[in-house]
Design goal:
heterodimer, A: 307 residues, alpha+beta, Glutamine Phosphoribosylpyrophosphate, subunit 1, domain 1, seven-stranded antiparallel beta sheet, 8 helices, 22% helix, B: 275 residues, four-stranded antiparallel beta sheet, 9 helices, 39% helix, 16% strand
Chain lengths: 307, 275
């Protein structure tokens, strides 16, 4: 189990996103509000920083340690401004069998690809379906997978659904790829008789748009083992929240009504503030699409991911 | 045999004071205690307060559902009248197939071992305040267990459904054209159908299984009997049920918040309502 966050909007210092809020992602590594497990398995981000060299290529930072004590991260976050961010703290079971290392830290960004992805969840019994899943993935992508987790394979599957995994991708094409990947995972689970609850909360971005899912396969069918998911009851449908930010603007039709122009959106597994005011809970089985809209500002669309 | 020590703020609970039964404990003051005693009559008054709060929560939930239906429907008033028809179960639109639950869960699907065993049920959120699994067994004893396939509409007016496995989606109808707004996803340990059972009014919602689900059916008569029963397990059940009502209201409010936030001008009516 993990915690993730993403941002799209006006450039802001990374410090404002990662540290300043009183329940920031860095704090969630050791003090999450909506889960009992600590997130000690590593930290990473991909940040798109305007004004830097090759701004479409994100600055990436991944360490297998706890961000709380990371002085390099702290100084970096104070210096860099980002217009888009995908960040993640990795939660793993307190078990020596878990593989904690750089290769398993999110977000994933294969060399040459434009989309970064982070995952909050766990595909139950993934080992049983891994071989069949691999056959669904383009060989050149499968060859680049370094880690041992289901998350990186989900990332490779999403990229495989695109016409060109290494080219520029529009938000609609990316959304179709995500939906296709979830559908394919569902088919593989069914083929292998896997019917245990498995959350697939994803955030992905290419710096121009942001997509997030709140989705769980077989919700309500808890694993019978001693795992985190086997005992979680309170927040059993893995949470996802978002906060649109912006300012009052002039009405386009001159009617005097002042619509809110959304100029930034934060998405996170749980609110980054102790107060939940201003945060909206994403519906279960949904996909959030955040992208620039004609006329300025950002559009936020929620789509149902279907049965 | 010494059972426990009491500190400041503690309550010496005499079992016969909270439920029917004989007194089988003795309380001995080791110091000079100061406090007050609650006799059975006072306890009944306190618990009636819980029930009154619960009834208010049900009314509040019903109001939330009505606000959502009204706010999202441009014809507003027409929706309200349509909801009354729904509640009387006399007008089932063709858009809303009213399929019953599978009659025989054993035929529909083989359930895993312990799927609805008492030990498993005792782990669910609604039973977390129960003292032990035996109390849970007292609540579910003799109740029918139903199976619902994914996507199946649930038509059980007059009964509460406790989700044991899977998930049920609860929606209010919006307009007369088959539109709907999901107001709740009820997972394991959550109930479906409180407005209509707890307040005897028409049900403002429809429900369908979002996942393959195992459900425990509590007929209205059984629910009422538990709400009026002074046993410890019945009181735990009452508290859990009303807590679930509050949870449902909270989920409905999140739907309203999203709707308001996603509407540039306040065309929904939700923003102007006193909630």
């Amino acid at each position: 189990m993990c915690r993730l966050m993403a941002y799209l909007g006006d450039p802001v210092p990374l410090e404002d996103l990662l540290y300043r809020p009183d329940a920031s992602l860095v704090r969630q590594a050791v003090d999450p509000q909506l889960m009992s497990l600590l997130n000690l398995g590593g930290f990473g981000f991909a940040a798109w920083a305007p004004g830097t060299r090759d701004p479409d290529t994100p600055l990436t930072y991944r360490v297998a340690t706890i961000p709380t004590f990371d002085r390099n991260l702290r100084t970096l976050a104070a210096k860099v401004e980002a217009a888009a961010l995908v960040a993640h703290v990795r939660g793993v079971g307190y078990d020596a069998r878990e593989r904690v290392g750089m290769q398993n830290v999110h977000p994933f960004l294969l060399e040459g690809a434009t989309i970064a992805l982070a995952h909050n969840g766990d595909l139950h019994d993934f080992a049983r379906m891994r071989a069949d899943l691999q056959s669904e993935i383009r060989p050149e992508l499968a060859a680049m997978v370094e880690g041992t987790t289901d998350s990186e394979w989900i990332y490779a599957l999403v990229l495989s659904m695109l016409d060109d995994p290494f080219g520029a991708v529009g938000v609609e094409d990316a959304a179709a790829a995500v939906e296709g990947a979830i559908e394919r995972l569902g088919g593989l689970r069914e083929a292998h008789g896997i019917g245990v609850q498995s959350p697939v909360n994803l955030v992905l971005s290419d710096g121009h748009w942001l997509i997030a899912t709140r989705f769980t396969f077989d919700y309500g069918w808890y694993p019978s083992d001693e795992s985190f998911f086997g005992s979680e009851r309170e927040h059993d449908f893995t949470t996802l929240w978002y906060a649109p930010g912006g300012c009052e603007g002039e009405a386009e039709n001159g009617s005097g009504v002042a619509p809110r122009a959304t100029t930034s959106v934060v998405v996170a597994s749980e609110p980054l503030t102790k107060s939940f005011a201003g945060w909206l809970e994403a519906p279960e089985y949904s996909m959030l699409l955040v992208a620039p809209r004609d006329g300025g500002g950002l559009g936020v669309e929620i789509r149902d991911l279907g049965l | 045999m010494r059972a426990l020590d009491l500190v400041q703020g503690g309550v010496a609970v005499e079992p016969s004071g909270l439920a029917e039964g004989r007194c089988d404990t003795v309380v001995t003051a080791l110091g000079e205690p100061c406090g007050c005693s609650l006799d059975r009559a006072l306890d009944a008054v306190l618990f009636s307060g819980v029930r009154r709060a619960g009834q208010l929560a049900v009314a509040r939930l019903r109001d939330r559902y009505a606000a959502i239906a009204e706010g999202l429907d441009p014809e507003g008033i027409a929706t309200r009248s349509h909801l009354r028809l729904v509640g009387q179960s006399v007008d089932r639109s063709t858009h809303w197939p009213a399929l019953g639950l599978a009659a025989d869960p054993a035929v529909a699907c083989a359930l895993p071992d312990g799927a609805v065993g008492v030990e498993y049920l005792a782990s669910l959120v609604c039973f977390r305040r129960f003292d032990d699994a035996a109390q849970v067994a007292q609540i579910v004893d003799g109740l029918a267990v139903r199976w619902a396939a994914r996507g199946e509409w649930l038509d059980r007016e007059g009964a509460l459904l406790l989700v044991a496995r899977g998930a049920v989606e609860v929606s209010v109808r919006v307009g007369g054209n088959g539109g709907a707004q999901r107001v709740r996803l009820a997972g394991p340990g959550r109930f479906v159908g409180h407005p209509g059972v707890l307040d005897d009014g028409p049900s403002p919602v429809v429900a369908r299984a979002r996942e393959r689900s195992v459900l425990i059916e509590l007929p209205r008569e059984r629910v009422n009997a538990l709400l009026n029963c002074p046993t410890a397990e019945a009181r735990h059940f009452t508290a859990a049920l009303y807590e679930d009502v509050a949870c449902a209201a909270q989920q409905a409010e999140r739907v309203m918040a999203r709707t308001v936030a996603s509407t540039p001008a306040d065309t929904t009516g939700l923003g102007a309502r006193t909630l």
